[in-house]
Write a structure and sequence with these properties.
The complex is a heterodimer.
Chain A (H helix, E strand, L loop, with lengths): L21 H13 L4 H8 L3 H30 L3 H13 L2 H6 L3 H20 L9 H32 L6 H10 L20 H18 L3 H39 L1
Chain B lengths: L1 H11 L3 H9 L3 H29 L4 H22 L9 H20 L7 H37 L6 H8 L17 H25 L3 H33 L1
Helix pairs in contact in B: 2-7, 2-8, 3-6, 3-7, 4-5, 6-7, 6-9, 7-8, 8-9
Classes of the chains: A mainly alpha, B mainly alpha.
Chain lengths: 264, 248
């Protein structure tokens, strides 16, 4: 791996032309960051207000992705049958299956099945996307929710990773760190392909983002590869620990509440 | 484009200078990715055309039902073969085909439901979506495995950057152009195996060049993540089996 001394400062990197607008600069930086080059990360680290620029980039990418995926979802919606028409077909199909025919003589089963089916129908109408149904309203709401979600994730990850990076000997400031990790949102650009319906981008975005975050941390804090790797992954480990702890606490609370209730 | 074709040819022939020059370039990852995406799309283009033509061909529902019924018959035959090796319970064949026919019936009824845009538009868009998803699927596998290979390579003393390493190993996709004949029975499978073996050899060579270390170390860096994954999967399976036995 290239030594961190090879990372160029802003004076050594290709200077942005004076006519280059802030928007163009952000798009150029994101495009270069996608290919895991250290230069764009070094450039944003040395820029004025890196965190603000990073925030701008995240909002820009998120809105673009949400808008394109709205087009894709609308096309899917227009080419798929209405879910309200599909529901009775599935219901009748299940009723024609051998296991149902065997069980239907039991009134308790019929009642239980009907109740569960009604619950499923309600869930189906409340959250159709859970059933893979193309739905325009949730896709449109992503224009607001995706920028919010990505910004929140970026900020939380940035702060936690900053703490770990400093503990591991990092030299960057929090603003620089946020600017650099904002560039790691670049793989989200792959989601622009969902402009076309039925295109599945899949898990590549998440994995690629981890790699971008690694380059961001390494460049921002001038860390060795091992320390940069540790600082990149420790926030994920911390998140897993927090989630597991809450899950354990929740389980204990549930046992205490319901266990106590049963014994009374 | 000519430059990429030249690169692809030299990569297939394992020309050392080509690998070294590719890794040394600042845009190695960009070039590698371009090649990976192009090869994957090229390999899938014939199947895509076949699917589109098949979907646009006017066929009666009865003919398609017949086609699906033939598929079920094929499956029943394969169950007969399986019976020689596995203990298939009596009545299983009848039971499973009943469920398959019920599912098929549901599928045909859903297929017959009206859509807002004409049906052929939906079918072509579905085929196009599946076709354009191919590179993403390959990218996910390659990058997901590549992270672990990069880690092992680093631990073995490798001196590459993530960008160089991924740019180099993306070349493994080149022989997969042979997947273009995937739809041909038997030959497609054989060519797929050849492409996989050739791709692994290119992966090892590219890794050795990118890290500036021996082929032996490159083989180790390539194989260790798969071995570790296999061992972990086996341990997980054993754990589940133990749990199942204990809870009986």
């Amino acid at each position: 791996m290239a030594d961190h001394s090879s990372v160029k400062g802003p004076e050594e990197t290709a200077p942005a032309s004076s006519e280059e607008t802030a928007l163009k600069t952000l798009v150029r930086l994101a495009w270069e960051a996608l290919f895991l080059k250290e230069e764009p990360y070094a450039e944003i680290r040395e820029a004025s207000n890196p965190a603000l620029r990073g925030l701008g980039l995240i909002v820009l990418v998120a809105v673009a992705v949400a808008l394109t995926s709205l087009v894709g979802t609308a096309l899917e919606w227009a080419t798929a049958p209405d879910m309200l028409d599909i529901q009775p077909v599935v219901f009748q199909g299940i009723q024609q299956m051998p296991w149902y025919r065997e069980m239907q003589s039991d009134p308790a089963f019929r009642k239980g099945f009907q109740e569960r089916w009604e619950m499923l129908e309600m869930l189906w109408s409340l959250a159709p996307q859970l059933f893979g149904t193309p739905n325009i309203a949730p896709a449109a709401s992503r224009i607001i929710l995706l920028p919010l979600g990505l910004t929140l994730t970026w900020f939380l990850y940035g702060v936690v990773a900053y703490l770990f990076a400093r503990l591991l000997g990092g030299q960057g400031g929090l603003g620089q760190m946020l600017g650099c990790t904002a560039l790691a949102v670049a793989p989200q650009l792959l989601n622009l392909a969902t402009f076309l319906p039925y295109v599945v981008v899949g898990g590549v975005v998440g994995t690629w983002m981890i790699l971008c975050r690694y380059v961001a941390l390494k460049t921002c804090h001038r860390l060795t590869w091992g320390r940069a790797l540790a600082a990149t992954l420790l926030p994920y480990v911390a998140l897993a620990v927090v989630v597991s702890s809450f899950a354990c606490l929740g389980s204990v609370a549930a046992v205490l509440i319901f266990g106590g209730g049963a014994s009374r | 484009m000519n430059e990429l074709l030249q690169l692809a040819r030299d990569v297939l022939l394992f020309k050392h200078e080509t690998y070294a020059q590719h890794v040394a370039r600042a845009d190695a990852l960009k070039r590698g990715l371009a090649l990976l995406v192009l090869v994957t799309l090229l390999a899938g283009v014939v199947s895509f055309i076949i699917n589109v033509v098949g979907d646009l061909r006017p066929t009666s529902v009865e003919a398609r039902r017949q086609e699906a019924e033939e598929g079920i018959q094929e499956f029943t035959k394969s169950l007969g073969t399986m019976r020689q090796f596995f203990d298939v319970p009596p009545g299983f064949e009848r039971e499973i085909t009943t469920y398959m026919r019920a599912g098929m019936g549901m599928g045909f009824r859903i297929e017959a439901l009206p859509t807002r845009l004409p049906k052929p538009v939906g079918r072509v868009l579905t085929d196009l979506g599946a076709f354009l998803s191919l590179p993403f699927s390959r990218l996910a596998g390659w990058i997901g495995y590549g992270i672990w290979v990069l880690l092992v390579a680093k631990l073995l003393g490798g001196r590459t950057t993530a960008s160089q390493m991924l740019g180099a190993t993306a070349l493994y996709a080149v022989p997969h152009v042979l997947d273009i004949l995937n739809f041909v029975p038997c030959l497609g499978g054989v060519l797929g195996l050849v492409a996989t073996a050739w791709g692994i050899a290119i992966y090892v060579k590219a890794l050795a060049v990118a890290n500036d270390f021996s082929i032996g170390r490159a083989i180790a860096a390539t194989v260790v993540p798969a071995l570790v994954g296999g061992v972990l999967a086996l341990l997980g399976l054993l754990g589940l089996l133990t749990l199942a036995l204990v809870s009986r």
